[in-house]
Amino acid sequence: MTTDEQYMREALKQAKMAWQRDEVPVGAVLVWNNQIIGRGHNQVELLNDCTAHAEMIALTAGFNHTGTKYLPDATLYVTLEPCLMCCGAIYWAKVGRIVYGAEDVKNGYRKTTGANNPFHPKTEIVFGILAEECAALMTAFFRQKR
Length: 146
Hints:
Layout (H helix, E strand, L loop, with lengths): L2 H18 L6 E6 L2 E7 L2 H4 L6 H13 L7 E7 L3 H10 L3 E6 L6 H5 L10 E4 L3 H15 L1
Parallel strand pairs: 3-4, 4-5
Antiparallel strand pairs: 1-2, 1-3
Helix pairs in contact: 1-6
């Protein structure tokens, strides 16, 4: 198992926690110096806050851990392609690397930006890590809702 897969599995654990709380199952972990410094899962329903996405919660935990507003040496692992709102936060945080699993054709950043990169110019983007597992979790959640 690669390091990216290892940390994506941690993000999947967060997504499953979201599902258990009847939230859309998206999870994220923020890694710095090979250590998880932030974890998050969607809490939109719990907090009645449309900005309480997994990425935002993981970033806030990372800022608190490091005591800084920039995270150029960190990698954010997220189970689903970030939305445009989360891209803005990731951009301003100057996160060095983004790794996401499943594509989100309905609400992902690429729907709005197309081929344009909404992240900081130095941010590396990796996608497709455990994509099938991440997508299957979303599909199962919404199938259960219907």
